[in-house]
Amino acid sequence: MSDAVANGTPVASDPAIRPTDAAASPFTMVAGDPSAMVCEGDVCFVPGATPEA
Amino acid sequence: MRPHRFDLSVSEPIKIDIWSDIACPWCYIGKRHLEAGIEALGADAPDVEIEYHSFELSPDTPLDFEGSTVEYLADRKGMPVERVEQMLEHVTGVAANAGLDYHFEKVAHTKTLKAHELLHFAKANGKQLELKERLLKAYFVEGGRVNRIDQLVGYAAEVGLDADAARDALESGRYASDVQADIAQAGAYGINGVPFFVIDGKYGISGAQPAEVFSQAIAQISGERVA
């Protein structure tokens, strides 16, 4: 999991803002790094991956 | 710490609303990444205005958990202690890369609602960014008890807030409804996890994204305004 945090960094030529399928959000989601960590409840994780601390 | 202010390249500052909790290791890391992303824009950086919003990650956290972080997480997740230790080591390493000196062995797990009330008091008095930084440092670096009014008043005073007014705000619960309003707003927006960044009221960024993601998004939004 630690490798994923670093490897997903977008390159400078990537468009910053691209639509995602976050249907519940009223915002245009910035795709960014799919391995960026999010915390929910007591756990933090890469969405779709194993829970982290 | 003063709010980020840079030379104007657009007429109005770009607003960055951030939902986060104090007890959120990736919120502090994400905060540093955002700051680095803004700094990386250098002279091209637009004026930005940052506002933090309350989010309570774990409402059932005990008010004063006396055990260690490892015990707390292992018990809650039902995971082996060794695995929890590995995860904490990983987070500590990523935090160090962001310039943060995490000490999970000191962390005092607690509810954060009172800390959020104080953040609203600080916002009303122009010191929210300073207090947010102080509370995150207290929690992850120093092992501060961010639920105790005496300690919170101390942090408030350290960032230049009036100690008596801060104590009155906390003891009266005057800002409790503002905390709940933020949490409800997050729910209405479909925000289930933090950190969550909303830029210019239109663009969402989820998670502790790399600095480059923030730089690119802010630059693109600034460019759209100018065009």
Automatic annotation (TrEMBL), chain A:
Disordered, as annotated region: 1-22
Protein name (database record): Uncharacterized protein
Native source species: Agromyces allii
Species classification: Bacteria, Bacillati, Actinomycetota, Actinomycetes, Micrococcales
From TrEMBL, chain B:
Domain DSBA-like thioredoxin: 16-219
Segments forming a coiled coil: none
InterPro entries with a match to the protein in the record: DSBA-like_thioredoxin_dom, Thioredoxin-like_sf
Pfam families: DSBA (PF01323)
Domain of life of the organism encoding this protein: Bacteria
Protein name: DsbA family oxidoreductase
Organism: Agromyces allii
